[in-house]
Amino acid sequence: ALRDTHGRALRVATARGALTGTAVGLTTLGPCAYFEGRWDTAVDLYDQGRALRQRTGNTVDAALGTLNIGEVLIDQGRLDQASEAVVEADRVFRAADYRGGSAVAQGYLARIAARQGEFDDAFDHFNRAPADFVAIGASPDAGELAMRIAESHLPAGNAIPAPPLPGQTLRHPRPAVRAPPLSLCGAPRRW
């Protein structure tokens, strides 16, 4: 139902030639495709929305599209391409002082590093993100970050810590001892 509503809104915006409305429609349909497991379609929608945002001069929202593409690429295991997209989005977020976007980007860079077996880099990225989340009061995002930290412990061969309770710090120490990385199946996740 939500996809149909967004689809109708996209058709109206497109028919009226409203670039911003069309960009919003495309960007909103991206997550619908993503959560349905239609990742290539999600990338296409995010990319079309990103391009329109760029045309209207909205570089921060265009960078959000780039970040969304990076997330899909991470889940597809296309880590080099994902890293390029996320680093580019984070560059824009930092230039615009958009701490929320940068915090999400740091979380994605940590996921990439962990999947590449670069656990020290992963934990460094994870340690940069919470301050930005806390500064903007985005505790739901910080909670997801805690889950991603736990997720990254599995291939690192460490016990998976419980997420912090509300009000506790998310600062995550590097593990003192690491076991050899576990072999993961590499199959894409479907949330």
Note down, in words, how this protein is organized.
This protein is an all-alpha fold. Helices cover 71% and strands 0% of the residues. The chain contains 8 helices and no strands. The protein is globular.
Helix/sheet category: mainly alpha
The total strand number stands at 0
Residue share in helices?
Answer: over 70%
Stretches with pLDDT under 50, minimum 5 residues? 169-191
* Beta-strand residue fraction: under 5%
Distance between the termini: 19 Å
The helix-strand sequence is HHHHHHHH
Specify Rg, calculated over alpha carbons.
Answer: 18 Å
Number of H- or I-type helical stretches = 8
Shape: globular
User: Roughly what is the average pLDDT, rounded to an integer?
Assistant: 75
Major beta sheet summary: none
Concise overview:
This protein has 8 helices and no strands.
Which short descriptors sum up this protein?
single chain; 8 helices; 191 residues; disordered C terminus; mainly alpha; globular
List the helices and strands and how they pair.
Elements: H1 2-16, H2 19-35, H3 39-55, H4 59-75, H5 79-95, H6 99-115, H7 119-136, H8 139-156
Helix pairs in contact: 1-2, 2-3, 3-4, 4-5, 4-6, 5-6, 6-7, 6-8, 7-8
